[in-house]
Amino acid sequence: MRFDRCRMLFGEGGFAKLQKASVLILGAGGVGSYALDCLYRSGIKHITVIDYDIYEESNKNRQIGSEAVGEFKTKRLEELYPGIKTINQKMDIAWVKDFDFTPYDIVIDSCDTTKVKLEIAKKCFPKLIMAVGSAKRYDSSKISVASIWKTQGEALANKMRRELKKAKFDRNFTVVFSTEEAKCKDKGSCVAVTGAFGLTVCSEAVKKILNIPKKGRV
């Protein structure tokens, strides 16, 4: 059967928790699409993906579904992953403020806009797993997981910390990041890292759903 090996690993009780969990993925690019694939294959039934982009030729080096150049990502992912829900929506600060995150057990932020990420953190930090800085790198062994307050060597995470402090926000949330130094100035990317980011995000989501101890990280 399809999920027999997941049941062997998680046990019937753990697998039942995964089946019942509701996960929201914000952004279906190089990180988000691999997080989706991993969650879907792990037995999570209730997945919602929000994105507004159309696949471009340049997406083919790292994004699942990107062979469908010219199509909305949400449309193609619905075809590849039957049963998921998608929302074709541009995410901005106003949308984050208005959107109801309460139905979701886990919120995965793999979007690109710093101001939007800050607003997401403020609104749903207890159930947030945020991906930061997967571009410009090719060494997947440098991927780490920590509280936003304990990340190291990642410029965007550093900037977010400064902005959160200015806003007098001091709560914890989980961040997947890389300690590898950026290898280029533009948005160069390698699926060895962006995909591994997505898989790491999925692992963190599974652990969060199963209430696996975080060993003091967050």
One letter per element, helices H and strands E, the order comes to HEHEHEHEHEEHEH
Q: Tell me the helix content.
A: 25-40%
CATH topology: Rossmann fold
Overall residue-averaged pLDDT value:
95
What separation lies between the terminal Cα atoms?
36 Å
Task: Outline the structure in words.
The mean pLDDT is 95. The protein has a seven-stranded mixed β-sheet, with helices on both faces. The termini are far apart. With 218 residues, the protein is of the alpha/beta class. It has a single domain (4-209), classed as NAD(P)-binding Rossmann-like Domain (Rossmann fold). The protein is built from seven helices and seven strands; from the N terminus they run H-E-H-E-H-E-H-E-H-E-E-H-E-H. The protein is globular.
Provide a concise account of the structure shown.
The chain is an alpha/beta fold and 218 residues long. The chain has helices at residues 4-20, 32-41, 73-80, 93-98, 114-124, 155-166, 191-209; strands spanning 22-26, 46-51, 85-88, 106-109, 128-131, 143-147, 174-178.
